[in-house]
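Comment thread on ticket #2218

A.B. wrote:
> Attaching the input chain for the structure job we discussed in standup.
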Amino acid sequence: MDENCIFEFSNSYPSYENQEFYLIKDNIIYKFSVQRIENELEIKNNNYIAKFNIDEISKITINKIDKINKGYKLLIKLFQENKVVIKRIITNKEIVLNIKIDEKNEKDIILSYNYEYQDYIFNEIKKLKTDISNLKQENNKLRIEIQELSKKEQNKNIEDIQLLSTIGDDLYCSTFDNTFTVFNSIDNILYLIYSNYNKSIISYDLNQQKLINEIRNAHSKNISNLKHYLDKINKRDLILSVSFNDNNIKLWDLKNWVNIVNIIKVNSIGFLASACLINENSEIHIITSNYNEEDNCEAIKVFDLKGNKIKEINCSNESTFFIDVYYDSISEKNFILTGNENYVKSYDYNSNSTNKIYHKYYENNNGSHKSVIINDKQKIIKLIESCIDGNIRVWNFHSGLLLKKINVNYNWLYGICLWNSNYIFVGCNDKTIKAIEINNGLISKSFVAHSSKVITIKKFIHPKFGECLISQGFINDQIKIWINKK
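C.D. wrote:
> Ran it. Output below, let me know if you need it in another format.
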């Protein structure tokens, strides 16, 4: 019998009585109940329940192939209806059931049910429990050692960051995040796209370290926001550009820099801080931030790629400084994320309906929220945002509960990015970039990065230098690339 997959009865197994047994698989003990009522046997746990006829099973013998097939098909039918799959039948006394316990991870366990040898199995399982207990202790020690080594390596990694190069002259940088964008194109070129005081959109090859192209006067006024999107259907790279001052949005095809969409005067008053693209039902839509001036509310607007306004999304009477989209692969839904004056919000996006707020991530009236990112690499999906009140807040994305608040030395905070599962980098108004250890909320590293406040900071993978940071300071500061010395 497989030592990783054994069960025991809590006592003898008379008819008409509900019994418990335990299944050990990968050091995890699963509890089941077994009940025999006349000619039926019922096996169930918290998630599954299955019944089959004992008389049918008792007739199954190796020599009666037709009865084996009949009984096997009966069990298959009954168990599959309850998300339980029979692997095989060994004899008329022993049945091996392959039971799916964890649907999400598609892990199966094998239950070997034997009518006669409970005492033998009970003794075997007692021995196995002792072995497992010892293994768990050794495993815990090893896990702690690995965590400590990993922590040291991550700290070492953080400490080894240094300046590699600076890029650009006479650059323009607003106070809104995503002042530049970094990505690998369809043609496998590592692009940096940024803007300058000539109202240009500049494309730069980070691998070859050379200027590729410059589109002068791409907007009538300075460009405040740039984002990249991969159009998988048409197999092309798209660049979305936003001008804070001229209130216009443009969409470009990177291959030949053709202006695909030009939406003029998105908001009737005030400014346009940000915009993003969303792929909904194989259609690309443009979503814009809203602006409120003296209680004149401008809604979030949705446009198609012809520049036609599809609809407006209701929002509160306040300005949105940051807007982006997150696709949740588990629920298979798009969510709009907004960083507003006093809180962060998420919307459950549906192109065919008015979109209600999914969650409002709010602690108190604490000032403008400048950047929002999602960490979905762990079991709990987390929304992480920066605020000018000097705090990074970590929320449970789906429940809206505040998980952690990290104060960063009373700085105004701007762009943020994840370095790995342990660290966040954040741009601050004291001209520094700070590395924050997420678990304990401590500042692991702080260094002066620019001559003014740091607005945008991103992580990218360089083919030569590996994991790198890239950042930009306010107004006319250069873009800087930071690498690990190791």
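A.B. wrote:
> Thanks. Noting for the ticket: The longest helix spans residues 118-159.
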